[in-house]
Amino acid sequence: MTLGAPNPDASQGSTTSSGNDRAALEGMLKSYPIDQLVEEVLIAWDELGRRNDEVVTIKQRLRVLELDLAEREDEVAPEIQRLHESEEQLKEAEARIVHLDRLLNDTRQELASQASSLSKEQQDALHEEVEQLRALSISQD
Questions:
Q1: 129 vs 78: CA distance, rounded Å
Q2: Per-residue b/e over 38-54, b at no fewer than 16 CB within 10 Å?
C-alpha cells in the first residue's frame, strides 16, 4: 500500500483530524531521504515484532491462567458437591428435630393428661371410700 492510497481498513466515520494527521505524516515522510525512510520502516518493524512477541507472551500467560483456573474448579467441584449434600443432610436433620420436638410435646401433654386423669380416678376412689366409711359409720351408730 502506498502512502497516498486510501486505507481500505479505515472506517467511514473517521474524524478529519486523523485524516489531517495522515496527511501531515505523509508530507513529512515524503521529505525524508530513502535511507532514512528505510531506517524508520526497520525501527517500526522491530517495534511491531516486539509488540507481537508481547501479545504472544500475554496470550500464553492467559492460557496458563485459564488452565490453572479450570484445574482449581475441578478440584473444588467435589467439595462443592459435598457441601450441598451436607446442607441437605442438615435440612433433613433439622426437620427430624422439629418432628421429634412435636412428638415430645405431644407425649408430655398426654402424660400430663394421664396424670391428671389418674388423680381424678384416685379422687373418685377416695370419695367412694369416704362414702362407704360414712355409710358404715352411720350404720354403726
A1: 74
A2: eeeeeeeeeeeeeeeee
Residue 44: alpha-carbon gap to chain centroid: 47
Beta-carbon contacts of residue 22 (< 8 Å; ≥ 6 apart): 7
Distance CA(127)–CA(24), nearest Å, equals 124
Structural domain boundaries of the chain? 30-140
In whole angstroms, what is the distance from residue 102 CA to residue 113 CA? 16
Query: Backbone phi, then psi, for 44, in 5-degree steps?
Result: -65, -40
Nearest residue to 14 via CA among 2, 25, 4, 22: 22
pLDDT tens sequence across 34-67: 999 899 899 999 999 999 999 999 999 999 999 9
Q: Answer whether 0.70 is exceeded by the pTM.
A: no
How far apart are alpha carbons 105 and 128 in whole angstroms?
Answer: 34
User: Is 2 in a helix, a strand, or coil?
Assistant: coil
